[in-house]
Write a sequence for this structure.
């Protein structure tokens, strides 16, 4: 057998034999084997699907409009029709909304001070809270990763200018700068060229939350870029005449992408908390829209008489934040199993 025949035989084996799994497939396999992370992912998917189905629940099941006051409305409890808002005590001083009926067709979690269905509002609030949290996270990572790639790769004056700008934002407490920006934008419409955003737009809180967390994401990713830039394979590519754009796109970005993916669910969990806090203070999602934070604010005055108005959205916030943190830990272990080994030692 000649050398040419041997080479052809080896090429045939490589072409027909089993190919080694890539790093992303290996990471996905590890993540699937992590039952805790998979359970957290299932919880997130269920909450997201149920929240997206909120119009179907309100229109076809509860048959109510959760954004319209219903102070004179009635509902059915145990086969009898009762008022949604009932007199407090026997003196007729004030009214108290109906409590949970545990009937999905009639005020499952009761009503709020305006006679609106709490269960339907929690589902609608979930749509807005999740949309803002995930949208802000993706926007934040897009901006932070772009700046981190430029600053870390080029270094020098470029790195100095970008890093000092990030430090300037970093110097302000998160909630202080978020409250300040929200208060300003809520008093006037924001015009971005031909696009005009009103104070009731969900894009405003999404943009605010995305911008305030850019420095927190920028720093670790920039550190990864600085480390990758000094690797031998990057230096070899530079010696071969590779362009900066090619190096960033083909060598640097793929190696920092795992860090971005690990941070994404953790930052999303923080976004949920920040959005809930802003909406609770009345400077986040604006009426008639609702979010979990604003619903908790609505139920603040009913904690002693109708606590489920505030407890239900609070439970949803806890579940989502907990699931995102568990999923983030699972993604980290899947992408870098050495971290788990170091912890076990």
């Amino acid at each position: 057998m000649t050398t040419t025949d041997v080479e052809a035989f080896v090429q045939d084996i490589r072409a027909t034999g089993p190919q080694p799994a890539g790093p992303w497939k290996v990471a996905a396999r590890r993540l699937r084997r992590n039952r805790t992370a998979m359970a957290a992912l299932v919880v997130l998917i269920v909450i997201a699907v149920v929240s997206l189905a909120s119009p179907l629940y309100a229109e076809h099941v509860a048959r109510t409009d959760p954004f319209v006051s219903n102070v004179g409305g009635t509902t059915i409890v145990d086969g009898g029709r009762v008022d949604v808002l009932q007199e407090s005590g026997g003196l007729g001083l004030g009214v108290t909304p109906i409590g949970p009926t545990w009937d999905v067709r009639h005020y499952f979690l009761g009503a709020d001070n305006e006679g609106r269905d709490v269960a339907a509002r929690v589902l609608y609030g979930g749509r807005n809270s999740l949309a803002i949290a995930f949208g802000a996270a993706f926007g934040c990572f897009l901006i932070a990763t772009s700046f981190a790639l430029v600053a870390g790769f080029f270094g020098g004056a470029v790195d100095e200018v970008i890093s000092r700008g990030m430090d300037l934002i970093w110097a302000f407490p998160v909630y202080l700068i978020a409250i300040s920006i929200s208060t300003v934008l809520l008093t006037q419409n924001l015009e971005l060229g031909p696009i005009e955003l009103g104070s009731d737009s969900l894009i405003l809180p999404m943009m605010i939350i995305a911008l305030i967390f850019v420095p927190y994401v920028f720093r670790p990713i920039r550190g990864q870029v600085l480390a990758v830039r000094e690797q031998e394979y990057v230096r070899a590519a530079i010696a071969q005449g590779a362009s900066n754009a090619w190096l960033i796109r083909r060598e640097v970005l793929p190696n920092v992408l795992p860090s971005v993916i690990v941070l994404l669910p953790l930052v999303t969990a923080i976004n949920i908390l920040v959005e809930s806090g802003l909406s609770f203070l009345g400077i986040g999602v604006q009426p008639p829209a609702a979010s979990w934070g604003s619903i908790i604010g609505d139920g603040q005055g009913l904690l002693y008489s109708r606590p489920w108005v505030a407890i239900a959205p609070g439970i949803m916030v806890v579940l989502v934040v907990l699931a995102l943190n568990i999923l983030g830990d699972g993604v980290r272990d899947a992408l870098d199993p050495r971290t788990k080994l170091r912890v076990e030692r």
The longest strand covers residues 74-77. The first helix runs from residue 3 to 16. Residues 44 and 117 are 23 Å apart (CA to CA).
